[in-house]
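Lab notebook page, bench 4
Experiment: in silico fold of construct C2
Operator: M.H.
Input chain length: 173 residues
Purpose: comparison with the prior construct
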Amino acid sequence: MVGMIVARTGRELQRYNVGQRVVVGCIPYRLKGGMKAPGKNIEDTLEVLVISAQRKGKGMLFPKGGWEIDEEIQAAALRETIEEAGVSGIVEGELGKWCFKSKGNDAYYEGHMFPLLVKETLDQWPEKAIRQRYWVSASKAKESCNYGWMKEALDLLVKRLESPPPKSDDLIM
């Protein structure tokens, strides 16, 4: 990546769906040893990146933020991950969509989460001064995350990674 990335600010371009702010995020992950080892549980090789909550410093979460009207959904999820966690990589297929209540106010949000296979870790990123980042096991991430919908997304990622890829003769051409 070239130069310092500057975080987007303001809410002028935010997407809303039936009055709910739409947020997108990623579960940054890596597999120790590069891939699932034969005979090993995926949770033995899977590490996910969690970040500290910005407000009140309580708990950990996955990077997420507003999806703006001038962005594709996966590009927005990657942007938020770079801004908040300082990692980049390959954004994979959506894990799901959740409706959740904000912990900070009475608002409801629509959240979309994507897996992000991490390929680059940045030394400098926009929110470095206000967030810590930690590589942890999936089980540790579930313990430390305060958001039920993010835990559900992580469960879906684990299930996806446990499933063997389709054999070439199973594919429809």
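Observations: The domain at 16-164 is CATH 3.90.79.10 (Nucleoside Triphosphate Pyrophosphohydrolase). The mean pLDDT is 84.
Next step: discuss at group meeting.
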